[in-house]
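I'd like us to work through together how a protein chain folds, taking it slowly. To get us started, please write out a protein record for me. Label the sequence line and the structure token line clearly, so we can match residues to local backbone shapes. Once you have written the record down, we can walk along the chain together.
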Amino acid sequence: MKVIDFMPCSEAGGGRKNTSNVPDCIRFATWNIGTMSGKSAELVETLHRRKTDVCCVQETRWTGAGVRVMGKGTSGYKFLWQGCKDGNAGVGLHISERWIDRIIDVKRVNERIMCLKVLISDKLVTCVCAYVPQTGRSVQEKDSFWDQMISVTGSIPASEMIVFWRGLNRHIGTNVDEYDGVHGRYGFDERNADGERILEFCDAMELIVTNTCFKRQKNKLPTYVSVGTLSAIDYLLLRGCDRRHIKKRQSHCWRRVCITVSVTFW
């Protein structure tokens, strides 16, 4: 399946390649926002306070596709989103003002998959924001999503770093089993059938679930917190060879948990 809606250079920031005065450490985050309506100011303030450079948001519930500048000056962010006609699902990416000129291109696949390519130091990095169909959606819809993910991943050159931020709504569990090299053994909860599919995808595409590579206190493992419910359903995936670039991982408990990681290049 083809990737559609290539962003022209004027919208992408021109792809300036001068790397002087560009930081070599970038902080990525993911946030299942529930809806972007009425939350723009809160989200931008939180991202700026947490010194976040790029944030993938899922379940925006905005229709259509577009670009909007939020915030002002050095605390500003450019928000790029992709939704659908009925206002369900929806994904988007916030990128801070200091990185806007480093955008090379953006590709919108559909309301569940969106890609942002940026130049960090001398390395091209593609950030993929994905939102898996929830439990209860049809098998056909889930199969279509994973076919698209395979197509998107396969189209990214091996020389580029991939950062997958995904609202996966699935449990991969604590046991490594046959997924050594994919699962780092520090998981959460029991694996389910859809979690198995995530690991199969990672195994096939030579990705690693970085959430499972950090030993943390039990109360810092969940990525979703609700009344009486703790779950780890949001994941950061990288190519196995790029694991060394991850500096740290943190969970911040807001209305929903936001996961941040720092990626360092040297």
About this structure: The longest helix spans residues 139-154. The longest strand covers residues 123-131.
